[in-house]
Design goal:
Elements (H helix, E strand, L loop, with lengths): L7 H8 L2 H14 L6 H11 L5 H7 L8 H20 L4 H17 L3 H17 L3 H17 L5 H39 L5 H14 L10 H17 L3 H16 L3 H5 L1 H18 L2 H13 L5 H4 L1 H22 L2 H4 L2 H11 L6 H17 L3 H12 L8 H17 L3 H17 L5 H13 L4 H16 L9 H5 L2 H10 L3 H13 L1
Helix pairs in contact: 1-5, 2-5, 3-5, 6-7, 7-8, 8-9, 9-11, 11-12, 12-14, 14-15, 14-17, 15-17, 17-20, 20-21, 20-22, 21-22, 22-23, 22-24, 23-24, 24-25, 25-27, 27-28
């Protein structure tokens, strides 16, 4: 699990690639004299450390005194960012545009107003082409300042032109801010509660969505207004568990990029997230063929050049690929084949432990636990479920915390840990009540597991059959059905009734659905 508190400088050094480190050394040697190499010594020591420890730093970098360390760290941090900025200018259009704005500012400070205006005019065209509206607005505001200093015969026409441009871009930005605010608030709600749990949740989400969504003309919206609008619909339909509509708007999100292909390269992260949501919706609706088609589309991106120069894109791509490769095995019922992904995922999590957020790690732990459970490796499943329980902050993805504990109970039952089970059931019941997540399905499963330990072997099969019939009535219930998204309890019951592996039961169901 990623650490909650870590030294920012150490985290930055651990996030950079070998080529970026090499470029930093070249840059640092150019700007520093022999007397100013202490920050490079500090860099070398930190680069070789596995964990941040100031005692070890001072022991290994003997020329650095404890009183100098804070200033040296601040200086090294600044120089690293400067070096990384120079490295990324050719790979990030926003950094490149900002560099040109900085150049124009330098010329303005020198009193070379006409030269500054020329740079701004070219840079504004580049920013417009790449739909960098905030930077366009910044450039227009700068142009106003320059025009007030550099007077020409055409000032009257320029004043009208700049005013029109400022009004136009301001209007676009207002729309973008409105739709992006709505999108992020709905996403925050999803991260907090997951899917709607009851009528009260549903009414609250519907009221929020309908109250805040103003009338719009889709044809008149800009690229980003459409993007954030589609995102809002995706989060809304995900929360209310309407996965077909969720897929519809996630596909609109992806189609928006594919009809504006230049934006895929510029905003690859947003394109990736769109594909991720398409795949998630297809997983929930069990559209296997379309899912695999889109997974191939995602995998094709592995070889694109931009992923080699951007750690964020590389992390996002691999994160989404691993999640959906696991999902593919869930859809095929091939849990035994999915197990081979776990060492790779563990390596990926360890390699990116300083940048991976708790939400993503929780998702991986739950999915890995489900893989092991489906393959009958209950001890291994419990190991990953305990990692979820070890996270004390349950405000993020409370749904995973809740169902992780239920899967933990079933795993202990399979291992015949009867002494632990009674305590675990009481503990889980208290936890779910505290989380306000005790729905009928959860209550039933807890009562069922408590009862199982006292049932004689000759009565077990009848009890399992009865429980399956009881649970079946909630499978399509609009609020109770979410439990079956996290946990295929029905297949587990079938496996116990028929005395066959869960994987075999699931694969058989998949084959029947294909016919």
């Amino acid at each position: 699990m990623p650490k909650q508190q870590i030294d920012p400088l150490f985290q930055l050094i651990k996030s950079i690639s070998k080529s970026e480190k090499r470029n930093f050394k070249l840059y640092a040697n150019r700007i520093s004299s022999e007397k100013e190499t202490k920050f490079l010594q500090l860099f070398d020591v930190l680069d070789k450390m596995d964990d941040y420890n100031e005692t070890i730093i001072l022991k290994k970098a003997k020329e650095i005194k404890q009183s100098q360390l804070p200033n040296l760290k601040a200086h090294l941090y600044k120089q690293l960012l400067t070096s990384l900025r120079l490295t990324q200018i050719n790979h990030d259009i926003s950094i490149s545009i900002r560099e040109q704005i900085d150049h124009a500012k330098v010329l303005y400070n020198k009193g070379l107003y006409q030269q500054s205006l020329r740079i701004l005019d070219k840079t504004k065209a580049l920013a417009r082409k790449n739909k960098k509206n905030i930077l366009v607005f910044e450039i227009v505001q700068f142009e106003k300042l320059l025009e007030s200093q550099y007077v020409t015969k055409s000032i009257e026409n320029r004043a009208e032109e700049i005013t029109r441009e400022a009004t136009e871009i301001s209007k676009i930005m207002d729309g973008v801010v409105f739709f992006s605010n709505m999108s992020i608030r709905l996403y925050g709600l999803y991260l907090k509660v997951g899917y709607v749990r009851n009528e009260k949740d549903l009414l609250m989400v519907k009221e929020f969505f309908n109250t805040n969504l103003h009338p719009y003309d889709i044809q008149s919206l800009s690229f980003f207004e459409k993007l954030y609008l589609f995102q809002s619909y995706v989060w809304y339909y995900l929360i209310v568990q309407d996965f077909l509509m969720c897929y519809k708007y996630a596909q609109k999100w992806v189609d928006l990029f594919q009809t504006n292909p230049e934006m895929i390269h510029i905003h690859t992260d947003l394109y990736l997230k769109g594909l991720n949501n398409v795949l998630a919706a297809l997983f929930y609706t069990n559209h296997v063929t379309t899912f695999k088609k889109n997974l191939r589309l995602l995998r094709k991106l592995e070889h694109e050049e931009q992923f080699q120069h951007n750690s964020n894109l590389n992390i996002l791509l691999n994160m989404f690929l691993y999640v959906h490769r696991i999902n593919r095995h869930f859809m095929d019922g091939t849990f035994n084949k999915g197990i081979h992904l776990i060492p790779k995922i563990e390596h990926f999590l360890e390699e990116n432990k300083f940048g991976m957020d708790n939400h993503r790690a929780l998702v991986f732990y739950y999915k890995i636990a489900c893989l092991y459970f489906g393959n009958g490796q209950y001890k291994e499943a419990i190991k990953y479920l305990n990692r979820i329980s070890d996270v004390k902050d349950t405000t993020l993805r409370g749904d995973i915390h809740c169902f992780g504990r239920i899967l933990n109970l079933i795993s202990h039952y399979e291992l015949e840990n009867t002494e632990l089970l009674e305590y675990q059931i009481r503990s889980t019941y208290r936890f779910l009540a505290k989380m306000d997540d005790l729905q009928e399905v959860q209550k039933y499963i807890l009562r069922f597991l408590r009862k199982l330990s006292s049932i004689s072997p000759d009565q077990l099969k009848d009890e399992l059959k009865k429980s399956r019939i009881d649970l079946q009535k909630w499978v399509n219930d609009p609020f109770e059905k979410r439990a079956f998204l996290y946990l295929d309890i029905m297949s587990w019951l079938d496996s116990k009734i028929e005395n066959r592996p869960v994987q075999e039961i699931i694969m058989e169901k998949i084959e029947k659905n294909k016919r």
